[in-house]
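Hi D.,

Good news: the full-assembly prediction came through. Inputs first.
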Amino acid sequence: MSPASVLPARILIVDDEAPIRRFLRVALEAEGHSVTEAGTARAGIEQAAREAPDAVILDLGLPDADGLSVLRAIRGWSQVPVLVLSVRADEAGKVAALDEGAQDYVVKPFGVKELLARLRSLLRDRATAAGGPRTVIEVAGLRIDAAARRVDRDGAEVHLTRKEFDLLWMLAAQAGRLVPQRMILEAIWGPAHAEDTQYLRVYIRQLRAKIGDDAADPVFLFTEPGIGYRFRGE
Amino acid sequence: MTDTTIRPEPEALLAEAARATRGRLKVFLGAAPGVGKTYAMLEEARRRAADGAQVLAAVIETHGRAETEALLRDIPVLPRRAVYYRGRILSEMDTASLIERRPDLALIDELAHTNAPESHHEKRWQDVEDVLAAGIDVYTTLNVQHIETMNDTVARITGVRVRETVPDHILESADEIELIDLPPDDLIARLRAGKVYVQDQAARAVQNFFAKGNLTALREMAMRVAADRVDAQLREHMAANAIRGPWPAQERILVCLNESPAVRDAIRVAKRSADRARAEWIALTVASARAGALTDEDRERLDASIRLATRLGAELATIEADGNVAQEILEFARRRNARRIVIGRPRPGSWFARLAHENVARDLIRSGADFEITLTAAQDSDRGGRITASLRLFRLAANRRGYAAAFAAAAAATGLAMAAQLFLPVPGLSLIYMTAVIAVAARFGLGPALVTSGLAFLCYNFFFIDPRYTFSVMRESEFVNLGLFLVASILTGNLAGRLHDRVQAQRATVDRMAKLYNFSRRVAVAASFDDAVWAAVSHVASTLECQAILLAPDTEGRLQIVGGFPPEDRLDLRDMSAAGYAWERGEPAGHGSGTLPVAAWFFVPIRSGDRRLGVLGITRTNWRAGPAIDRPLLDALVDQVALGLERIRLAEDLQETRVASEAERLRTALLSSVSHDLRTPLVTIIGAAETLEDGGALTPAQQADLASTIREEGERLDRYVQNLLDMTRLGHGALKPNIVPADLCDIVGAARRRLRTLTRDHLVTGEIPADLPPLRVDPILTEQVIVNVLDNAVKYAPAGSAITLEARIDGARVVLSIADEGPGIPAFAQEKVFEMFYRATDGDRQRAGTGLGLAISRGLVEAQGGTIRAEAALPDGTGTRIVIALPIDNPEWPG
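Then the structure:
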């Protein structure tokens, strides 16, 4: 999938820093998107309601209100993908944003390339929703066939248990996107196990071993320490 | 500058300054009761009140005199405090309320008054001191016979000795003394008219006291005190105003303190001479082996005279002398420029005592030809003490074993002599008794030896001298024999006994010196305040056979118990206020002292120079048991404690200074780091951005190059800012690691991804086993650590070289090592690289970097319970390996 394959979209940027809005606008418009900007939480909510953007880039630190309140307001009527901008130390803020329904985050200061990659994977949902769900994902020698529940690495079959396969497919289906630990645990082990992160660590490790991925220098599965996992994007 | 410049004496100025904050004391001095002191005081007080001053009558004894009461009419009177003592109700001045009401002027009659038992202070003058210290002016009255140094003279003149005395320094510190003078005839007339109230004294004594001759002498004395005072004020004024006076060369007066009954007189004489000559005076004690052999009574007298001398303002000095005491005293006097020596005349002892004792007074007169030597005689009242003292020598209770031994020895000698008479002539048997006397003397000292002599004499006479079994003697030769035996046995007993006592005393002295020496050594090696306190209390307790406690001010200046032996953390209110008094006033207080004598503890202030360090308290469950508290030894111990505490304090100050200069160094380093490390990337970014703006001639490759330069420098700036943030959080203890189970390989992976562009010129390889147990760490912080270490490795290792990550389990930890192929860190700097702003510099070649990365890494690792260190990666000392050990998560780990 090349960048060009993403449909032009309307993006709302909610950030109080004009220079950041400015360079984001330049970068996003270069990708073919159209951009609206908001400098405050109030303006952000208004614009989100009025413009019905395809994605929102939301800074958590706003002058008039917490960015989370903007997120909550938007979630009141819309499931539009939201990408949160956060600072490195604010782990709790990231987790809270993900819990409130943000799809992903990037840490300030971020690279534009990284941001655009995240945004693309968020916007892809729109595309797949239009073109029907995919059943086969193939990337860098790894082939995952959801219908056949079969995984091949460089042409050789890899035997996965049911849970391992479910886990891999869940991550791969959202390639490039952060999947919070909690979400994975609830989906695969059930809501009762939402806190049992050690299960997840064990399974991820087994999975990595089977598909030949090195945690210290990963190719397929990336860990966001303390937050969740991310399957490699395009 | 000329040598005639005269500057005010600083001490005189200080004295004036101290007086400014203190209340002013005015003493209405009279020669005798009834001269009208109270009246004069009230008159003056009314004048002050008319001027607008708030006057409060704290204690006024009107003795029912109408004219005095009339004067008191519109002056507010402070209610007395009722004190119940042994079924009687006494009323005393309510000092606390007085201070609380804060009048401008307090009227306190009868300065020499002794307070009811269990009062805060023993004497009223001590209360007056407190009132003055609170900044309240005081008017008070005093009769001349109550002045401490006048006491003896007055007693000699009038035959009436007053017990209530006021120390001279109170009078000296008075700002004003007004002499209330009444000619003796007028006073006697007033007495006859019943206008003089005399407190329940026998009428005859009163008659004697108010005899005209007495009154004249007293009046003269009062006048002299007042005149002296005027003189002193004049002199102080001259000194404060730098007026040159005919001050004589600093001469001193020396008073020898001994156990002589006349010593109190000697002290007072010395004090008076010193006052008159405006000279300093020294009270000298001679430490000799003999001092250890003093009777309790003598020792008490010596201690009391030391206290008296201290109270009267003498400088205390001690010399060691064995043998020629007089010579040593004269030597000391010469050294200190003392031309006058005062000494109490030794008590007139028996011919025998004169033989055995050194007569120091006589020796002084004999060899101190160039000194003025004053002998003072004991008074009758003191002589009784001597008799009881000598009786005490035979006090059975004191040396019961010794006297039992005397009887046993006499009996044994008799038995032996019975057996020996078969082959020894009777006169020879006396040798056996003599041996017994010597044996007892050597073992038990003088008293038992003399008893043995007596018993031996009797037994020898009874059993062996014809006619046997009677005490009579028949032949002249045997009479002589017996007589010689008695004399010889007493002399030998005496000599041997004295030798014994002397050895004992010597031993006690040696013991005391050893204790002091041990103590100073222990205090000297104490490394901390707590150590020193512990050494102090435990040593004082064991040396003086008492309980000891040490109080010191806390950071807010409140006195707190800092140590006790046996450990004690509570004092009752009375003891606490005694301790507080000792602390505030720098004087001993509590049990047996002049202030709060009913307290269970006795407190002495600990001070070093002018600095107050704390208060040392001692107590015993039973003060009467055990040997008397050795005050000089206690004082010596307190001095040592002061030295020890002072030393610790200095060391701590030094440490603080060091910390402060370290903080200063860090601040400077931080400033230079911020200006250098923050700006360098900015310079690059701004430069590259401007070049891009100009655009034009740049090839696309050049543009891309500039753009990536901007990005890389921006990332570098980001890492630097992150470090500064972490440093601040570490420095403020605000770093709260979010400890969760986390896999090391995940963390390493995240760190490597973050540094992908930075490490692209290096070969980063890692062998992190996938089956490592999870760690108990904050993954974000640990990631930052790895980023910092990798950043450092990239900075110092040449491009193209390898950076190797390895991890293994070591006990309850996982050890991660990150090795580069750079120049390495010299061994001496392998610890220093973890200090803030330290950079392993290599000549001028300073790499871009902040010197913060590793310091912060250490802070972060340690905050999570791990360790980090540096070592050489290769055997030749090159290459750097950073070894990080991190704790493994709980053992429930299912893998």
